[in-house]
Amino acid sequence: MSRSGSHSHRVRWWCLIVAVVAVWVQQVEGVWPLPQQLHQSADRDCLSPQRFSFTYGRDSAAQTGCSVLDAAFKRYFSIIFPDFTTLSENVLQYMWSEPQPFVVSVSVKTRGCDGYPDEDSDESYTLSVSEGQAVLRSVSVWGALRGLESLSQLVYQDDYGTYFINKTEIVDFPRFAFRGLLLDTSRHYLPLYAILKTLDAMAYSKLNVFHWHIVDDPSFPYQSRTFPDLSNKGAFHPFTHIYTQSDVIRVIEHARMRGIRVVPEFDSPGHTQSWGKGQPGLLTPCYKGSVPSGSFGPVDPTVDTTYKFMASLLKEVKFVFPDSYVHLGGDEVSFACWQSNPNVRKFMEKMGFGKDFTKLESFYMESIMNMTAALNKTSIVWQDVFDYHERPRSKYVVEVWKQGCYLCKMRRVTKAGLKVILAAPFYLDLPIPTHSWARYYNIPQDTVLEIWKGAKYQTELSRMTQAGHRVLLSAPWYINHISYGQDWRNSYAVQPQNFSGTDEQKKLVIGGEVAMWGEYVDATNLSPRLWPRACAAAERLWSNEEKTLNADLAFPRLKEFRCELLRRGIQAEPLFVGHCRHEYDGL
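Above: the chain's sequence. Below: its structure in token form.
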């Protein structure tokens, strides 16, 4: 017998011996987020990185040269075999020479390798793992990416360092098309590496929209080509704390290669103090009695120069950010400065607004939304715009962000016929325990006004959808709020479709997003505050509602996924007492 044949037989015998002796060996708890259908058997294949390969199926519309999948094959090889170059000699003597080959065949029906993911992207896939092969099929490259992530989570090691994968059948697709994560880069500047690392973790969790709250009152880090003084004078530092055009392009491309959309937010007329530093005349002068006080309030909605500026800025945004959505904000506008300004009061009288400053804000927001519509962009606005009696056209989306009865808010929005995005229960920047993730679970089927606040945001859901708006919910997912314990369970328990409304209303809820606001978050604590808490919302937005009702059943999978995030370089905080297998070297 040849030496190579002898080695090949020895590898097969070694795999068999390991399988028999280590019958107790850990298998994967499952995939996170949970696939729609997953069936596994105890039969498993022994894998070797030297004999493991990705290939395109013969019937695949995408072949070698597909940028998205070519890069994904390399990326997931390194994820599946992270210690490929550092395998111990004890393992190498058995695994180095001609083990059983294992081929992952990937076939997609439509090529789409050079485009960007959008709201209509098909992320469905099927995955069949059998002896010596895995067959992954999808309609699009974006579905293939989701399937590759699931495949990577099926591979595990025993204590001897041997890789295994069990025979598995998966049929999978997302419950919601919009599964977002908001990062605030104004209150604290986040270095580029922190944003890119967050995008990686989003892809691992199958989140697909990066809501980039790029500017706000404290700083204007976006370096505009049209208005360079906005960052020159409005950023924390004009050279070090900015996002250049090349930085933005890098973020968008990094996201694209992982099937993630980038939706920028330029929030106005409030939250614009940093804008005024580089754009004189944009903000409203506040008055004390009959004289200016020297301070400034929101954007001045009474002068033509404001609208010329906004039209130029939004035109630039259209060409820099390829996504069809742009977030226009519209929240938390203080009317005190407008009330103090005699020119604003005269404008109000001329327009017949009386003393109702909500009408003035609505006038401004209507104008800005018309601009984005003319640029063929869909607007997302915070629920405040709807709360102030504005009736936006059905082309834009409302985000429900206010805490409380977010389902009430969603009911109101969907009743109005608008799509909804749910964010209210997913604000992760607030201090609450990791065990509460179960609250983030039941998101409606098609989520976009953004509902972010309200003691009863369920009422908002009903009210806004009844008006025909698409709605996003963020109110229960403000994960910048943290507290001691397992607060991920709170997120996991969210039931955003549980509001009074018709089936058609509930279809207007297009998804949700977790929000990480930056008052107390920078690059030092971003990842552990986000992960694995954001994963609870990720599963709620992806997985079947009926199969994911029990947080206790989900806990072992989330615990293992948290360890997987650590193994991949994501600093995810612990869920409870315990350890991760990669923390020691085994033999």
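The chain is about 35% helix and 20% strand.
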